[in-house]
Amino acid sequence: MRTDGFRIARVMKYITLVLIIAFVAALMVYASGSSRPFEEVEDAVSRSLDKSNLTRQDGAAFKREFGLSEADYQGVMYYASEFSISAEEVLVILVKDESQVQEVTEAIEKQTEARKNDFDGYAPEEVKLLEDAKQSVRGKYIFFAAAPKADEYLEAFSNSL
């Protein structure tokens, strides 16, 4: 009986070890960035967008909205509604180094709060869109979407990495 207890303990030890290794591997895959080129990620996300209301924006629009220069990053994809009464926008950025991540996420938060204040009182559906926005940071990639299909766009982004 005593040897059965030791065998069970030994088996449980190996099972626990395997579970820990699987957990760490899953965590590293999910939390890590990607070595994929920005153009591939951009293409995958861009193909998933509903472009009936979203249009590609240039570096000047990105600077105007977020106060950031496109030249400071390895890649920037910015789509926004062509109508000023819509809060719909999708942004993917590949930073040059991870120290820029906080700067970008703070700029996104600041812009989101400013837009909420702009729409507050006369466009509650746009405020809701901004409140339900999806954001993800994966390594050097930053994703933000305030759109009715934000979940789909986030999935396309995650799958492209």
Give a quick rundown of the structure:
The chain is an alpha+beta fold.
Helix content: 40-55%
Radius of gyration from CA coordinates = 21 Å
Calculate the terminal CA-CA distance, rounded to whole Å: 52 Å
Weakly predicted, low-confidence segments: none
Overall 3D form: elongated
According to DSSP, the number of beta strands is 5
- Sheet with most strands: 5 strands, antiparallel
Sheet/helix structural class: alpha+beta
Strand content: 15-25%
**Number of helical segments with 4 or more residues:** 6
| Strand order across the largest sheet | 1-2-3-5-4
What letter string, H or E per element, gives the SSE order? Answer: HHEHEEHHEEH
Q: Could you report the average pLDDT, rounded to the nearest whole number?
A: 88
Protein name: DUF4358 domain-containing protein
Transmembrane segments: 12-31
Keywords: Membrane, Transmembrane, Transmembrane helix
InterPro entries: DUF4358 (IPR025648)
Description:
This protein has 161 residues and is of the alpha+beta class. It is built from 6 helices and 5 strands. Strands 1-2-3-5-4 form a 5-stranded antiparallel β-sheet, sandwiched between helices. Strand 4 and strand 5 form a beta hairpin. The longest helix has 30 residues. The termini are far apart.
